[in-house]
Amino acid sequence: MKKITFYLDFISPYAYLAFERLPEALMGCTYSVEYKPVLFAAFLKKNGNLGPAEIPGKREWTYRQVAWLAQHHGIEMRMPAQHPFNPLPLLRLALACGTDGLVNRYVSETLFRHVWRGGADAGDAARLEELKHRLIPQRDPASDAVKAELKANTDEAMARGVFGVPSTVVDDKVFWGFDALTMLRECLDNGPWFEGPDWDRAARLPAGIARNPAS
Fold first, then answer.
1. Residue 37: helix, strand or coil by DSSP?
2. pLDDT digits 0-9 by tens, 109-127
3. What does the domain layout of the chain look like in residue ranges?
4. Which CATH superfamily does the domain covering 2-204 fall into?
């Protein structure tokens, strides 16, 4: 049985779409999934990047594309009242409901749908309090232990080569994005391409020019 690690941050519409689509995309496979919340902003900081929602033009395109993808795939979705927002309360609440940095599918689904269905404010204090009453976390989301788990998950993901969300990792292979689910499925089906040279060859391609973003 293959083990899939699904790294997620509730701030990402692509992570929501991939989460909703994952069971259908992998139907018929024998696998287990670990759901691990991470802080997407830490990936951006490490790599000196802005998020899609922070770049004019890309922001609007992202929102249009995810709305189209949702209707195309029959996934219920409505943008929250404002985006981006601070995802830390949701990430910590999720981890407070789990153990050892892992979150079950029900908790993940509840928090994703809190953000991406209904069009309400994902960070509204009253709504967050209602979530706590519904999920009944075993630990305090604001505890040092929960905060440490989020950092550990994020550090682990970066050490495995993860640079964005959603990312699914199988063995040593990272599959990034909603549109990578088809590729992930073929890998789980032992597709011959994954045994060939192209996967490793991509990492050996030399760069012809290095641009300094600050110049």
1. strand
2. 999 999 999 999 999 999 9
3. 2-204
4. Glutaredoxin (3.40.30.10)
Q: 3-state DSSP call for residue 174? A: strand
For residue 6, count CB atoms less than 10 angstroms from its CB and return exposed for 0-12, middle for 13-18, buried for 19 or more: buried
CA 168 – CA 26 distance, rounded (Å)? 12
- Terminal CA-to-CA distance of the chain, rounded, Å? 49
Rounded-to-integer distance, Cα 72 and Cα 198, Å: 31
Paired with 173 in beta bridges are 170
Distance CA 101, CA 177 (A): 21
Find the DSSP H helices in 55-197.
58-73, 88-96, 105-116, 125-135, 144-159, 181-188
Paired tokens of 101? 């940095």
CA dist., res. 130 & res. 118, Å (int) = 15
Integer Rg of the chain from CA: 18
Question: Whole-prediction pTM value?
Answer: 0.96
What does residue 211 show for φ and ψ, rounded to 5 degrees? Answer: -95, 140
DSSP 131: H
Q: Per residue in 138-193, pLDDT tens? A: 999 999 999 999 999 999 999 999 999 999 999 999 999 999 999 999 999 999 99
Residues in contact with 153: Cβ distance below 8 Å, sequence separation at least 6, in sequence order: 7, 36, 37, 38, 95, 101
- Asked whether the CA dihedral 69, 71, 75, 81 is positive or negative, the reply is positive
Cis before 84 (ω within 30) = yes
